[in-house]
Structures are given as structure tokens and as C-alpha cells.
ABC-2 type transport system ATP-binding protein (Kibdelosporangium aridum), 302 residues
Amino acid sequence: MVPEAGLEIDHVSKRYGDVVALSDMTFEVRPGELFGFVGSNGAGKTTTMRIALGVLEADSGAVRWAGEPITLSTRRRFGYMPEERGLYPKMKVLDQLVYLAKLHGLPSNGAHRAADDWIVRLGLRERRLDEVQKLSLGNQQRVQLAAALVHNPEVLVLDEPFSGLDPVAVDVMSQVLREKAAEGIPVVFSSHQLDLVQRLCDRVGIVNKGSMVACDTVDALRSSAASELVVHAPKAPTGWAAGIPGVEVVSEQDGRTTLRVPDDVDDQQILQTALDTGPVHEFSRHRPSLAELYRNVVKEGQ
Ligand SMILES: Nc1ncnc2c1ncn2[C@@H]1O[C@H](COP(=O)(O)OP(=O)(O)OP(=O)(O)O)[C@@H](O)[C@H]1O
């Protein structure tokens, strides 16, 4: 049965000496949700994930799963892919996965079956008897994902699972994460690949300086931002749009101007102003991408 409450990070704060790593970090990853955790280097993503897994202790706040505080035995049912990758370099891929599955409580035959299944699924069949240290980095990462999944976890927490993967491995990883979410488990992963996060995730949390600054579906985040207008008016003099009330000039190059336009500004007025300078070859509105939104949010917070 899928629980109603997911993985809750509730007002968590953490300092390392004078460094404030997390300040009142709060969000929930719901059962069945694929949640993207994004933020600059040092924003606090790894710290949050380590606290969720109990690898690190928070100074204050709470972490809950299915409405209950997390204990050692709950954590055994989590799947975790740590940033520093935690495999035994001299162990063979198959032995490693069987060992980890047993460590999480699977009986011997179940552990073998699960290890074999994930080896095949993640394209590691040829490598199953190789030592982990002899694999390429991308293949080590596939093993790391298998290690997070081999005990059939109830929650998945993955720290930058896509970094260093080739496009085929990115597709396999994306598919696996989608499937896991579709099975009803909460899946949270951090990434700097914002186009991927935008494509894949049900909801996204943007972290800045240890706090959650925006958290919603990509569509909701994009539609809450002012839209942009691209105007291609090759004869328009530089600065032609500077005086239009309420409009911000984002960029202007080779007759192509990008304007940030609040929804209540009349774009026909802008079109007329552009036409007054000569022909207009393009006049189109678009919502900012997640990457653009992210840059705005981070810039505002500086
Ligand atoms: N062991 C530590 N000792 C001291 N400071 C630390 C330690 N670990 C992290 N920090 C600091 O805590 C803050 C948050 O770091 P964290 O690793 O959580 O960020 P992140 O969002 O995961 O970054 P990245 O995208 O670079 O992996 C940073 O200022 C970092 O320098």
C-alpha cells in the first residue's frame, strides 16, 4: 500500500562551524513523485540528502517518512546513491550487489536474483565478474545505481546520479527513475543538468544558500515568471525598447531583442513600437526555461 505522506524534510538547519549549510530547509517528496533538487555548488543539496539518510545529524528540524521519524530500520529500506560513491573497489560487480542486497535484509536467493536482474537491466552483463575498480566511471555509476535499487527500496535518494553518464546511460537511468516513481515510491535526485530535470521531474525544488527558494511543478514555476518576448526588427536602433513602460530589455543583438514582459503589459503596443522602426520578422512570446528561471532565482538571492 502506498503511504499518503512522503519523505518530509521539515525545517532542517545545519552548520559546519561558522558555515551555515542549511537554514530552515523544508520540502516534501510525495509517494510516486519524481522530484528534482537543483542549486549551485555549495547550496546544500548533499547536506540535505545526507541528513535524510541519517549519515549526518541535523542541528535542528526533523526528517519523516510516511509520517514517522526515520529510524535505523526505516533507513535500511531507503535506496541511496551518495555523491562520493560508496563501492568496494576490489569487489566484483555481482558479489558487490549480492552483498549489499543481503546487508539490506534480502535472503541469499532473492539477493542473487535481484543483483542479476539489475545487472541485465543496467547493461552490465559483460561486466558482472569484473572488479568495480576496473570499470569506467560511467559503468561504476551504473553499479552504484544498481546498489541503490537492489533491495527494492521504498524511497530513493540519489546525489547527482546523471553526472558523467553517456546519453544511452542517461536514458536508462531516466527510465528506471520514472518506473520507480510510477511504482509509488518517492524519488529525489540532485542534478546540475537542468534540461534533464525539466524534462523528467514532476516537481522541482530550487535551493539557494541552504534554503528552498522555489518549489513547484516546472509548468507552475515557468508560468509564474514574467514571459519573454523575442522581437526581430533588423532596422531598429539600439535601445528602441528602452522607454516602453513596464518592459525590461534582457538582451539586444543584431536586431534581435529579448524583452521581459509582465502579463498585464499590452504586447500590441510593443509590436507597434517595433513596426515604427521598420520591418518586424519575428515577434514571439516564450516562458523562461528552468535554466533561465534558476539563474534569475539565484541572481535575486545574491
Ligand atoms: N564536511 C564539511 N565541513 C565543512 N563545510 C562543509 C562540509 N560539507 C559541506 N560543507 C559546506 O556546506 C555547504 C553546503 O554544501 P553541500 O555539499 O551540501 O552543497 P551541494 O549543494 O551539494 O553542492 P554541490 O552541487 O557542489 O555538490 C557548502 O558551503 C560547503 O562548503
Summary: The chain has two domains: 7-222, 226-286. The chain has a mean pLDDT of 92.
